[in-house]
C-alpha cells in the first residue's frame, strides 16, 4: 500500500467515524414533541375585533338519533336571519356580539393528545367529516365568520373536562392536537334561543274581548259545520271594560252559574305567552295578499294546496260567503287599541324537535292518516305521552305532537270606545240683534254691573243665550281635544295592525298541542254552578201572617231581627206666598179665632183636649 492509498484510507475511516459520532449524538438527544410549543398561546391571535362577526354556525350531532343538526345565523340585507330555518328573522345582534366577544383571545391550555386516534375519546371528531365513519365522539363545530364568509374562528368543541368549571377539550379544525381550553360561550343551537318566542306579544292589560269559535270543516262541500244549533254553544264570548274590571261571559245565567276564573286566567295566560316552536313559509302570493290588505287571496291552485296541506281552507259560512276557516276552529282576541287578532288552528302532526322547527318530507300526510293518528293519540295513557317518553329516554327521539297556527290581524275602531260626540249649539232667540264689538274694559264693566243686579231679577233672553254660548264654547273645546285623541288612537291602531300583518304574513306557525288544548276551551269548561250553602233549602222561612192580622212577636230566647228602617217621608216643599198677599196674611193671623170663621184650627196628632175633673163627693 503506497502512501497515497494509506492516506485516503485513513481519511475515509475518519469521515465514517465523524458521521457515526454525529448520529450517535443526535440519537442521545431528547425527542422534540410537537404541540407543546403552542401551550399558552391563542388559537386565533388575529381575531381581536368581535364586531367583525357577521355569521355564526353551530353544527351538532345527536348520537342517539344519529342525526346532524346545523344551525346558523347570518346578517343579510340589513337584518339578522336564520338560513337553516327558512330565513326566519332572528333577534341575534346581542347574542352574536356576546358569543363573538367570548371567543376573542381564547388560549390553548394543557395539551391532552397529539394523536388523531384520541379524538373519539375526547369527543372532538368533526361532525361534518364524512370520511370518518365513527358515529360516536363527534363534537360541536363552532364557526364564526366575517362579511364575505372568511372564518374568524373555527373550533371543534368536545366533552367537558371532569370537575373543571368552563373547561372543554378543544381543537382547531385543521389541527390534530387536543387542548384543555377555558370557554365561557353559549353554544346553543336551539331555535327558540335565537328568536322572539312570544308569537303575539300582546299585553294582557289591553285585552277587552276573547271569542272562541267551535266548528269543523265539511271538506267535500267546503262548508263550515257548527257543533250545535245554539249560538251560545258554538261561540263563547268573554268581555270586560278594562284591565281593572272582571271578565264576563255573554249569555251566562248568573242565577245558577258563575265564571270559572281559574280557567279564564289560564286562557289569558296562554294567549299572552303563546310560544313559537317552529315555522313554515307561506307561498309568496299568499304572503303578499296579507301584507296588502290583511286578508288571504289565493291566486292559484298551488296557493289553495299550500293552505289545505296545513289545515286551512276557504269555506262557505252561514251566509254563503267564502271565508278563511280551519280544521279546529278559531280564537279571536281584541285589545283596547282596536287591534283584532284572529288565530286559526290547522292540522295536527308529530315529529322530532328538528321536524317541528323546520319540517320534513313526511310532514304533509293525507287526511285519513291524520285522523287515524289523532284517534290513536286520544287513547294514549298520560303515563305514555310523547312528552313523558322524551323525559324517560333522556333525548329527543320521542315524537311530539304539535299543530299549525295561522294568524291574521285587522283593525276595529269599536274597541277604542265610543267616539266623542259634538255638542249642539244653543238655539238663538228670535229677533236677537248682534252686539256691537266692544273693548275688554267695557265688557268687564258690564260684567261687574250684572253682578250687582238683584238675585231674583229674571235674566233677559240675551243674557241666557250668552251664558249658553259660553258653556257651548267650553264643551266644544273639550270635544275637539278628545276628538284629536281619538283620531290619534285610530291612526296608531291602524299602523299597529299593518305592522303586525307584515310580521305574520310570511309564516305558518307551529305551537304545542298543550297550548292548543288550553286555548280551545268550550263553554262548559269556563263556567261552574253556583253552590248553595248546605241546609239553606231545608230551613223554613219566617211564617207570613194572614192578611189583616198583625205580626206576632217572636217567641223563645232568640233575639228578633231588627226591623228595616223605613225611609223618612219627603217633606212637602214650603210654598212661597204670592206677591201682595204677605201683609194680608200677617194681619189675618193677628185677629182672634172668632173673627176668622173660615179658618180651621190645626189638629195636633194624638193630642186629646184636657177634661174637667169631677168635684169630690162630700163624706157622710
Structural notes for this entry:
This protein has 620 residues and is an alpha+beta fold. The chain has helices at 3-28, 93-103, 119-122, 231-234, 261-272, 284-293, 301-308, 353-358, 367-379, 386-393, 440-451, 461-505, 513-519, 523-526, 582-590; strands at 53-62, 67-76, 79-82, 88-89, 111-113, 140-146, 151-160, 167-172, 178-182, 207-213, 215-218, 223-226, 235-239, 248-249, 257-259, 278-281, 312-316, 322-326, 330-335, 339-351, 400-411, 507-512, 527-529. Strands 4-3-2-1-6-7-8-9-5 form a nine-stranded antiparallel beta sheet, covered by helices on one side. An eight-stranded antiparallel beta sheet has the order 14-13-10-19-20-21-22-16. Strands 11-12 form a two-stranded antiparallel sheet. Helix 6 packs antiparallel against helix 12 (461-505). The longest helix is centred in the C-terminal third of the chain and has 45 residues, at 461-505. Mean pLDDT is 77; it is low at 364-395 and 541-620.
List keywords for this structure.
23 strands, 620 residues, 15 helices, alpha+beta, elongated, 8-stranded antiparallel beta sheet, 9-stranded antiparallel beta sheet
Taken from the alpha-carbon principal axes, the silhouette is elongated
What fraction strand?
A: 15-25%
End-to-end C-alpha gap = 210 Å
- Rg computed from alpha carbons, rounded to a whole number of angstroms: 46 Å
Describe the structure concisely for a colleague:
This protein is α+β, with helices and mostly antiparallel strands. It contains 15 helices and 23 strands.
Q: What order do the helices and strands come in, and which of them pair?
A:
Blueprint: H1 3-28, E1 53-62, E2 67-76, E3 79-82, E4 88-89, H2 93-103, E5 111-113, H3 119-122, E6 140-146, E7 151-160, E8 167-172, E9 178-182, E10 207-213, E11 215-218, E12 223-226, H4 231-234, E13 235-239, E14 248-249, E15 257-259, H5 261-272, E16 278-281, H6 284-293, H7 301-308, E17 312-316, E18 322-326, E19 330-335, E20 339-351, H8 353-358, H9 367-379, H10 386-393, E21 400-411, H11 440-451, H12 461-505, E22 507-512, H13 513-519, H14 523-526, E23 527-529, H15 582-590
Antiparallel strand pairs: 1-2, 1-6, 2-3, 3-4, 5-9, 6-7, 7-8, 8-9, 10-13, 10-19, 11-12, 13-14, 15-23, 16-22, 17-18, 19-20, 20-21, 21-22
Helix pairs in contact: 6-12
